[in-house]
Design goal:
Layout (H helix, E strand, L loop, with lengths): L1 H15 L17 E9 L5 E6 L4 E6 L5 E3 L2 E3 L4 E5 L13 E8 L2 E11 L6 H18 L5 H25 L6 H9 L2 H16 L4 H17 L17 H35 L1
Antiparallel strand pairs: 1-8, 2-3, 3-6, 4-5, 4-7, 7-8
Helix pairs in contact: 1-6, 2-7, 3-4, 3-5, 3-6, 3-7, 5-6, 6-7
Keywords: Membrane, Signal, Transmembrane, Transmembrane helix
Length: 280
């Protein structure tokens, strides 16, 4: 019965989150091994600037000239700006170094925008996978050896939730071309179900209600499912995250390893609690 309830709650979360992005990274950004930047505008036009944002996935043009500027098929009036997704400057999917260029029109004058990709070697990925697996295995083993396994497990679920929340916040802050609030909500995905399950379940466990542990474990399982696509952070050097790359990888380790470990340990802990209640 316990396993069936867990499966039902996880299935509901997957159905609710089916239409969300496959990655927890906000704004559709992906992990790569390079950043793109603009190096020159030829000829230089006073007041006109073009910069790469979000690692080069988008370009931002600021028209401080006295003439209209046309870029990406859009006319930008003097004093206005334009941000657009530019495949030429995006390092996503590229496997070789190289430059890029495109042309904008400043009042009838063609201006060539040139950029480069700054490549960085990917990190060793095996240690991060090992940490994740170690955490996932350690959680059930720990819960077998402590007296208040329900409280410990609820705390681990809360830790996985906190890591997932920080992961989504950092990913949302990396998107500079859209308001944070909307980006954050769109990136939350099935966490709209997972986070309340874990938080509410934790409170219930603290109050001595065993049923709360079921909610914690279901939410932890959903957390692991949600963050699983972002294991690309273990294999790429440039991450769409507003913070150190090592922090992002640690958050993925905790959310995935802790969430999976809590989900696996949940059934055994719930059986133990049920056996104690029957014995009492």
């Amino acid at each position: 019965m316990i396993r069936r309830c867990l499966l039902v709650l996880v299935a509901i979360g997957l159905v609710l989150g089916w239409g969300t992005p496959a990655s927890a990274h906000a704004g559709g950004l992906v992990a790569t091994d390079a950043r793109s930047r603009v190096v020159s505008l030829t000829p230089p036009v006073p007041g006109l600037s073009v910069t790469a944002v979000e690692g080069g996935a988008k370009l931002r043009l600021v028209n401080g000239t006295g003439v209209a500027v046309t870029a990406a098929g859009t006319t930008v009036a003097p004093g206005d700006s334009l941000t657009w997704a530019e495949p030429l400057s995006s390092p996503a999917g590229r496997r070789a170094a190289g430059d890029w260029s495109l042309t904008v029109d400043a009042g009838g004058t063609p201006v060539t925008v040139r950029g480069v990709f700054d490549w960085t070697a990917p990190p060793p990925f095996l240690p991060w996978w090992a940490l994740t697996l170690l955490l996932a295995v350690a959680v059930p083993l720990l819960c077998r050896r402590v007296h208040r396994a329900d409280l410990v497990l609820a705390g681990i679920g809360l830790g996985a939730m906190a890591a997932s929340l920080a992961h989504v916040i950092g990913s949302s802050l990396a998107v500079t071309s859209a308001p944070f609030a909307g980006t954050f909500v769109n990136a939350t995905g099935i966490n709209l179900l997972a986070w309340p399950l874990i938080a509410g379940g934790f409170v219930a466990v603290v109050r001595g209600k065993p049923a709360g542990l079921l909610a914690v474990c279901a939410g932890a399982a959903l957390t692991a499912v949600f963050v699983l696509p972002d294991v690309t952070a273990f294999h790429r050097s440039v991450l769409p995250f507003a913070g150190p790359a090592v922090l992002e990888r640690l958050l993925v380790v905790v959310a995935l390893g802790g969430g999976a470990g809590a989900a696996v340990a949940g059934a055994a802990v719930l059986r133990t609690l049920a056996a104690r209640q029957e014995a009492a």
